[in-house]
Amino acid sequence: MKTVAVIFGGRSTEHDISIVTALASVIKPLELTKQFHVEPVYIAKDGSWYWDQKLKDIKLYQSGEIEDFMRKAPKVHLLFDEGLTLVKSSQFAGRKMYKKIDVVFPAMHGTHGEDGELMGVLEMANVPFVGCGLAASAIAMDKVLSKQVTKAEGILSTPWTWFYSSELSHSPQKILDYVKDLNYPLFVKPAHLGSSIGITRVEEPKMLMNALEVAAHYDDKVIVEQGVQNLIEVTLPIMGNESPQPALLEQPLTKPEDYFDFDTKYMQGGKKGKTGPKQGAQGYSQIPADLSKELYKKAEELGTSVYKALGCEGIARVDMLIDSKTKEVYFNEVNPLPGGLYAHNWRVAGVSSVDLVTKLVDLAFERHAGKQEFTTAFSTSYLKQF
Ligand SMILES: Nc1ncnc2c1ncn2[C@@H]1O[C@H](COP(=O)(O)OP(=O)(O)O)[C@@H](O)[C@H]1O
Ligand SMILES: [Mg+2]
Question: Whole-model pTM above 0.85?
Answer without folding.
Answer: yes
